[in-house]
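User: Before I run my own analysis I want an independent prediction to cross-check against. Here's the chain; please return only the structure tokens and, at the end, one sentence I can use as a sanity check.
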Amino acid sequence: MHTNKVNRPVLPGPDDLASIALLLDIDGTLLDIALTPDSVVVSDALRSSLAQLHAKCGGALALVSGRLIHDIDALFAPLRLPTISGHGAETRLPGRMLTQARHAGAIGEELRKLVAAAAAVDERVVVEDKTTSLAVHYRLAPELEQMLKTRVKAIVDRAALQNIEVLHGKAVIEIKLGHFNKGTAVHELMKCPPFSGRKPIFIGDDTTDASVFKILPALGGIGFAVERFVPGADGMFGSPHEVRS
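Assistant: Structure tokens:
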């Protein structure tokens, strides 16, 4: 683990698991980034590690992702962990089987069509429709990054819609409703047992995780970035492999 601060934050040990809450991003943090969202790999060893950690933390372990819960459950089956998904659009609390959609609403049909048309310039560009957000993946065509960013910005500017936010992640452009994010959802999660009263430890890898790093000090928590420093992080892992280890 590397850190950008003089005082190196101490990672929790087995004796600390009763007093902390583990909040884990998925893509680029637990899992290596793949060429397409559908081609990521979840090993049996990782499933086993997460199941053991979940039990040893007394249930205070949650996945925090831009993916939707049905997609996350399919990846990690048979595990069904507490989850914040869709950048905070959905939350599944401990002990509850049903997903709670805390923020109703969807990306408008006209905006959806315009973004799809912009991405259609190259079949290597993948548009992932999450209802409350759109993700334009260009990992297969990195040379199109600036063109896609320019087109998406122009589309959003012309639409002049309120509460639309554009996030730039690792080879992805996220267009989402602006009245929710991972940080607000984590803040709500930390009020619920068994997370309440614990020290949150968050690991995330991208600018889309910045809203969580921002609120951690107020919650008495610490955060770690992966591969590159993210503002607000207390330290950094070198790779998803280090996180899994």
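Sanity check: The chain has two domains: 16-103+180-244, 109-177.
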